[in-house]
Write a structure and sequence with these properties.
The structure holds 2 protein chains of 2 kinds. Chain A is an all-alpha fold. Chain A is built from 8 helices and no strands. Chain A has a domain of 71 residues: NADH-ubiquinone/plastoquinone oxidoreductase chain 6, subunit NuoJ (Four Helix Bundle (Hemerythrin (Met), subunit A), Up-down Bundle), CATH 1.20.120. The mean pLDDT of chain B is 83. The chains are: A mainly alpha, B mainly alpha.
């Protein structure tokens, strides 16, 4: 049911040319994904998807829209070659999914590698009830450190590219 | 947005609740769903809501971009610093057990709280900085 809604939203986004409506639909898409994550018992991911996808990125895209124009230009020619590339790549990806282990089977590699150890030992070794947090911050602490550094670097990158204007505006307001 | 009385009142009522929920997600992330990243984005979203309703100027007075820049770097340093303290205490980088040697799982708990704090700090301030960078551009386009 949720997946059907997702597909409908995605197709509508592709068809529409009014970018304002597209951004609103992106927000809706994120909210539906968040509901899907809740249905799959992943509240940690659903949290992030709802706030970042439906909230913050919508606002950021609206801010970008305020700087550009509201309507997408009509394409001047039909792009057959890219369509062929996309179809072939998509075909290979679908072919690849035939080799994926069946969903939820107990002998899948994902259930036999490190996951059981985390689930069984984390109560003793880390002592906190939320296994997601203990994997994220302790067992996989290096990865999360890297992610934090990525967030920081991304912010600095945006500041280097765009921050000049905000800084100038801020200083000018101060001088007034 | 100066004339939207209802929006302003509702925002004023909701902001403390959102911020409180952000703090709850930050410090309760080891018991319930959530953690530093989620808390950071919730706090950033609350501030963006404030900026949308009350304007760019008053929001940069609440959270000056200079302070945000320092916070953004400080979060990464808190994370790294936790690992370095572990090394100084004689164990591996980011091996939190060394905080309380006689009770490693309690040490893990403190370590997780510390690094989650660093993550939350970086995420919240970086997202706000990005938002201000965009909002500042559209503001200056409007005034020029």
């Amino acid at each position: 049911m949720l997946l059907a809604f997702l597909v409908v939203t995605a197709v509508t986004i592709i068809r529409l040319r009014d970018l304002f409506a597209v951004i609103m639909l992106f927000g809706l898409y994120s909210l539906l994904s968040a509901a899907l994550f809740v249905a799959l018992d992943a509240p940690d991911v659903a949290f992030t998807e709802a706030v970042v996808g439906a909230g913050i990125s919508t606002v950021l895209m609206l801010a970008t829209l305020a700087l550009t124009s509201r309507h997408e230009k009509r394409p001047t020619h039909r792009a057959w070659l890219p369509l062929a590339v996309v179809l072939v790549t998509g075909g290979f990806l679908v072919y690849g999914t035939f080799d994926i282990a069946p969903f939820g089977a107990p002998d899948n590699p994902v259930h036999t590698h490190v996951a059981p150890r985390y689930l069984e030992q984390s109560a003793e070794e880390i002592g906190i009830p939320n296994v997601v947090t203990s994997v994220l911050a302790s067992y996989r602490g290096y990865d999360t450190l890297g992610e934090t550094a990525v967030v920081f670097t991304a912010g600095m990158g945006v500041l280097v590219l765009l921050g000049g204007a905000a800084g100038r505006l801020f200083r000018r307001r101060k001088e007034d | 947005m100066q004339h939207h009385q209802i929006l302003r009142v509702v925002t004023k009522f909701n902001l403390p609740l959102i911020l409180l929920f952000g703090l709850y997600v930050q410090f309760h992330g080891d018991y319930g769903p959530g953690g530093g990243f989620q808390a950071g984005v919730i706090v950033a979203a609350a501030m963006i809501l404030y900026a949308l309703v009350f304007g760019f100027d008053s929001s940069t007075r609440v959270a000056p971009p200079g302070v945000l820049r320092v916070c953004s770097a400080a979060g990464v340093l808190v994370y790294l610093g936790t690992g370095v303290v572990n090394m100084l205490l004689g164990s591996d980088f980011l091996d939190y057990g060394s905080f309380v040697p006689e009770h490693p799982s309690r040490g893990e708990h403190y370590g997780i709280l510390a690094v989650e704090l660093g993550v939350g700090l970086t995420v919240a301030s970086t997202l706000l900085l990005i938002f201000f960078a965009f909002a500042g551009r559209s503001e200056s386009k409007g005034t020029d």
